[in-house]
Write a structure and sequence with these properties.
By secondary structure, the protein is mostly helical. It is built from 17 helices and no strands. The chain has helices at about 15-20, 25-35, 45-60, 65-80, 85-100, 100-105, 110-115, 120-135, 135-145, 150-160, 165-175, 180-190, 195-200, 210-220, 225-235, 245-260, 265. α15 (about 225-235) packs antiparallel against α16 (about 245-260). Residues about 260-268 have low confidence and may be disordered.
Length: about 270
Amino acid sequence: MNDDTLLEKISFEDTNIKNSVTNLTAPFLLHMASLKLKDFVLEEMLREEVVAFLEGIIEGRTFSYCISTHAYFLRSRLEKTSIRRLSRCMEQLEEVVLGFDCKKVCARTGSLLQSGLPPMWKQQKQLAVMYTGIGSHKSAVDIYEKLQMREDQINGLIGSGKYEAAEKLTRSLIAQGETPKLYCILGDTTQDISHYEKAWDLSGESSARAMKSLGYHYFNIKEYRRALSCMQKSLECNYLQGACGSLPDALLLLYQTLKPLSSVTSLL
């Protein structure tokens, strides 16, 4: 590709490549693509390489329903980060998920084990994630409700501004059994920090999520010392937060804010 034009599909220099993919090699390519997708950071060149694998299956000879569907599913996961490919990505995943017919699929289970096709609920969840990414929270909430993924459903309700519905659902789940995580979610829906404190106590002072939420709360109201103290406790509970997420950025900003103060050394 010599310019910024996005081609509809990959153009292979060797036209025999598509025909060289067989029923034996197609599952192998699918598993290779799945393994590469597990990388924490997927570089653009590696992404294009994986897409080429999948295009060899999609554009090649006719394969079983399971192999073809898995190829489309993996390609949709790769293309969801590209604005120019997002439309096609959504359409193909919607066709797979919304057009699912159990009676027809039961008759098309050839190569099911070899293909590594994920269960339908994972494909539905992926579609819900994409809906959330484009701001279509209602569609995402409908899928999460069907899958009984309550936490994701609540987050979708919050994203769509339906705080009362989110709070109602959270309280109904708490009524079935109290957990620190549910109280943290309740704190998110109500913006009441007492729920984070309740989660912290209920966990026996081991909930990293509760302290992190408290830390962000104090950070937003510019109580930096209290925010730093909460975030340090959160890291003590789960040090892996230091390697991912937005917590390190917040800690760095806190450090830069408190650095001029003479008491900062006693806090770090």
